[in-house]
Amino acid sequence: MSTNAIQPVLDYDEVLESFDPVMGLEVHVELSTHTKMFCGCPTDFGAEPNTQVCPVCLGLPGALPVVNAVGVESVIRIGLALNCQIASWCRFARKNYFYPDMPKNFQTSQYDEPIAFDGYLDVEIPSRTGDGVEVFRVEIERAHMEEDTGKSLHVGGSTGRIQGADYSLLDYNRAGIPLIEIVTKPVRGAGERMPEVAKAYVAAVRELMVALDVSDARMEQGSMRCDANVSLMPKGSAQLGTRTETKNVNSLRSVERAVRYEMMRQGAILADGGTVRQETRHWHEDTGVTTAGREKSDAEDYRYFPEPDLIPIATTTEQVEALRATLPEPPGLRRKRLQGEWGYSDREMGDVVSAGAVDLIDASVAAGATPAASRKWWTGEVARRANADGKELGDYALTPAFVAELDSLVRSGRLNDSMARQVMEGVLAQEGSPTEVADARGLELVQDDSALEAAVDAVLADNAAIADKVRGGKVQAAGALIGQVMKATKGQADAAQVRALILSRLGVEG
Amino acid sequence: MSALSREQVAHLAGLARIQMTDAELDKMAGELAVILDSVAQVGEVTAQDIPPMSHPLPLTNVTRPDVVRPLDERLTAQQALSGAPAQEDGRFEVPRILSED
Amino acid sequence: MTTDLTRLSAAQMAEQLASGAITSVELTQAHLDRIAAVDGAVHAYLHVDAEGALATAREVDELRARGEQLHPLAGVPIAIKDIMTTTGLPTTAGSRMLEGWIPPYDATVVARIKAARLPILGKTNMDEFAMGSSTEHSAYGPSHNPWDLDRIPGGSGGGSSSVLASFQAPLATGTDTGGSIRQPAAVTATVGTKPTYGGVSRYGLIALASSLDQGGPCGRTVLDTALLHELMAGHDPLDSTSIDQPVPPVVEAARSGDVAGLRIGIVKELTGDAYQPGVQANFDAAVAALTAAGAEVVEVSCPHFQYALAAYYLILPSEASSNLARFDAMRYGLRVPPADVALPSAEQVMASSREAGFGEEVKRRIIIGTYALSSGYYDAYYGQAQKVRTLIARDFEQAFTQADVLVSPTAPTTAFRLGEKLDDPMAMYLNDIATIPANLAGIPGMSVPSGLAAEDGLPTGLQVLAPAMADDRLYLVGAALERMLQEQWGGPLLDRVPEPTQLSKEG
Description:
heterotrimer, B: 101 residues, alpha+beta, Histone, subunit A, 3 strands, flat, C: 507 residues, alpha/beta, Amidase signature (AS) enzymes, 8-stranded mixed sheet, 3-stranded mixed sheet, 11 strands, 39% helix, globular, Asp/Glu-ADT_sf_sub_c (chain B), ligase (chain B), EC 6.3.5.- (chain B), nucleotide-binding (chain B)
């Protein structure tokens, strides 16, 4: 089979000249519950293999599942936040297929009775003009509960990949961790912006999960995963094209790239008169292409049936309303409110959002920092590093409390701007709190007025010609004097104060 | 009416992951025909408006609190692996897996 | 008083242990000696744990000597069906697939038995994964009916019924998916109860069909069975389908046996030509005895029972095909690589291991279940069977408005000969015709001895059925019948069972 050879792609604009893209996204979110979906095993990340298992999640003969109450509450809250209906009665179902990482050889999931259905999520994409945003509504088909699989390690062969491995090693610590699957209805009408919509949707779901405090939703750790179904419809046709399902898309950037790539790959096939194969494809972050996986034939038959070992879930209006009352402010509305409170421009707010700094700024302001300083610090050096390292702002030693502390040091006059930047570097290098870093590095503005006055007088005496110019009204010439004073005080003086002092000594209004 | 061809039985055996020889498939096809003819009787009942019964008792909402079970009610890696046909480094060793899920 | 301790009822053993007349070590050793003497002929046990049983017995004797408060059945030995997981003891469910597997956990029922300190003599034989009515589908060879070693002891719990009937244990556990406790009881003149679905925890009972399976007690007397029922039953948070309510007063009912004024319904569809004459005659006599004891008899009709067998043989294989998928040679159990492949894949090893590890009946049912659930057939088969199930439950509801309990013969015939129905799966399935409806509806049922058939001298049983959570009514009727019939017979039927060693073995 040559299906994994590099495939031709059609120019993106040409794709859009002939086709309308249709997309469906399936997002799997791992809940951050203390225990697994159907047993009391812990869910800690990174434990020794097969140490977080019991007869239930190991699928031992005779073991039986019991539903995690917080798992049910979480999916109802997710459903409500996605503007879904909540089923008044629903069951779990078994999805039967054999795979070594699945201990029972069926996945306990939901089939034709999802607990949440028919919702939508409004996502924001940058407007075409570059300032402000456009809102695109993504319809939600369903959100349902299921369980994760174990992890396999492929040993031998040359690549360490699944192909060519001699054998595999299985760890079932992850097996049974609660997963919520969120499925969109087919997304149409986004045209050339489809890849951006895909990324914005996944980002919005991620933001929602964090706001709901139900998952840490970290794509790079696998606690949030995305499968993208893409197909192309010839312009003017009402007939949906054959779709592919691209798996292994594990970053926001990949979501956008993978959708774009599939549009271009399928476009090339269709433009050439070929047919798209209905199959699973795998995204390769490094090469930026998808390769063919399992063919999704009609013969694939999961033999779903209601799970007899689990009791149906029935919800009352009161229960649902009680959970609705626990929902956080929707992230979009919250952003608008905060932008107003903080006085940011659209562009400033856009930078803050794309840096993932909203919550951190909110916390920093709450800790006493000014909105302006908070924005400056969170979208500055630390954001640059996070971007370069592929990490998140919260992964560094900087905290909202440190930002507030640093801002207070500046406002009290102890640090000037350049000193504050040095302190920030120290904080990021894990040297301690801003005060500790400033103390350790000996950073402090000269506060002793007599010492500063002496320095000013010395500079004025040494530069009488310039002083005369200033006296004569050329106030901008004072810059040279200020620079000399700053040099003499090794930068430990406040430039504004120096300027004021020079002007007052020379009898000039500032 | 309910007879299954050998190919159909082979397909079912594939879904059920049971290897079968041609002779076994033929024998199974013959036995299944008799059984399926008999169980097909359920189709004689008029039951359009009858709700299907998946659970014998009308219970709902049986859940457990999200609390970790103590270690002695779970399994150590050693216990988990105690019945394993093969193991390595605290993991279950299984033959090479053909295709990604 | 008899000197053979194994002939006592469990209740008598408990009394004599409590009074200090005997020790648990003596009692346990007597059973181990009995096993050594007769199980070669009966083949009721797959595994005997002399050491473990004696250790528990010694512990009970020591605790009792110290005056500790003990469970009433503490020290009374018991046999466990091999479908229940037991730490330290092999658990095979009668399958080659699990040969030598020692579970790392105890079934809830086993944990309760251990906590009450009943010495566990061993694990009893059964049809592979409880699929069968004869134990002939055990991968380890059939058990033999102590009444006639050439005949089947019933199934799937034929190991448990035959240990009781050959005095190799006074108590045994069972599981009943379509009659696996009641039919073996009927053909061996012992007692067995399938409790209300959810009455006994299924945690640690290797699943056949999750919505039908129910663990339950087996004994030689109605009281013994009630005592074990009480010990096994009760809410278990590890089983979502477990009923969170008090256990019905089964022991009290077994001690009372008062059926005066009780309305007993004869199910029209579960009598007649399909039943062997001696079975029907003993049933009629038993109903007459109950009438004499003050019960009122009515006839009820359950029109959808004629579809019960068909619905059952769709629902059971469907659930079983999924439940048995976990036996794939990856984490436990038999692993048999294909003979002719150099570096076989996991998929190939799964398929060849399942071929080697499962017997024919298991494969047959897995394939039927896979078919009944597959897309395009689901609605006609599994879906339709579940609707029929609803209709059968409604038939019961209707019948229980007219009667407090329902009765029928437990099985259509007495024990048939080993091998007689092995090549005819449908004939084998027909054995369960009277017991299946209770599993479909989730209601409790019991089989109690009704006599020996005139034509072959073999035991027959009467089945009592009650509404969900009215398990105590089974014991009222069972105890009344036991008392009335034993007066007629001049003692328990089992007094007449031949010594297994005196009979020639099959073949």
